[in-house]
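ARCHIVE RECORD
Type: protein–small molecule complex
Small molecule: acetyl coenzyme *A
Source of inputs: curated submission
Record status: active
Notes field left blank by submitter.
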Amino acid sequence: MGRKSSAKSKEKRLKRKEEQQKILQAMAVVDKANKLTDPLEPFPVFRKFNKNGIEAELFTQRVTDLDESTKSWIFNLTKRNMQLKYEQCSWGWNDNKKMEELMDEAAWYLIAKGVDGTFLGFSHFRFDMDEGIEVLYCYELQLEPAIQRKGLGKFMMQILELIAFKNNMRKVILTILKNNHYSKFFRALNYELDETSPIDYQDETFPYEILSKVNKRLASSTTTNINNKKPGQANGHSHCCSGHHHHPLMS
Ligand SMILES: CC(=O)SCCNC(=O)CCNC(=O)[C@H](O)C(C)(C)COP(=O)(O)OP(=O)(O)OC[C@H]1O[C@@H](n2cnc3c(N)ncnc32)[C@H](O)[C@@H]1OP(=O)(O)O
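STRUCTURE (tokenized, with ligand):
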């Protein structure tokens, strides 16, 4: 008897192998990006911002290189800007969980400081796999209230896009609470509802949506999605800003 291998199952096997191959390639792209020493290096012009009365210097750092005062400012600014919005939806706010997420060893930071050394704003981002593809995930973009609406946020998103696409990420992606009127900011920068954004049903609604901007240079090649679970879908809610990161090969 033995095992009969029909043409159909062979085809399936080949397809699966091809998809696994793509995942491995994507993971290699992510690993390579995570080994960078200074993602801003190719874009020296973007190290300075001077507009609307703000003079800022920008730099990137791995979380492991942040000093204590930077870490506590990052946490405090996030809390000041976001706590109420989290509390006004099903996520709720939890100091420890947010601290853990911000200080996860995979975290990268883009930081803007005034020329006098004052902290102005930051983005917490990661090069990561998301639903089977390589992405730059923008976990946070937070500016001090006094300097909002002066163009620095837009400038920082441009930097994230440059870094993402230079390093072959397929998209820049982020999670935003629906109760956050700053989704208008991301829409104004041409971020669109991502295909992985969860869809509300009668009895299950999601307080957040996922927006993204696709790397047009890579958009024509096919993407792999062997894992159809949407971020946050597993338990209907998530405390972490980016929903669930589900490692494709560990599922
Ligand atoms: C993934 C996440 O981190 S989600 C959480 C986002 N962060 C927050 O909600 C924290 C509080 N807010 C902030 O830190 C900042 O305001 C940010 C990061 C949201 C935006 O950065 P800013 O520097 O304030 O925005 P910027 O001045 O670059 O705005 C660019 C354009 O976006 C649009 N925009 C920005 N904010 C708004 C708003 N509140 N309503 C409508 N449109 C807006 C406008 O078109 C604006 O251009 P304009 O000012 O010339 O009209």
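CURATOR ANNOTATION: The domain at 11-250 is CATH 3.40.630.30 (Aminopeptidase).
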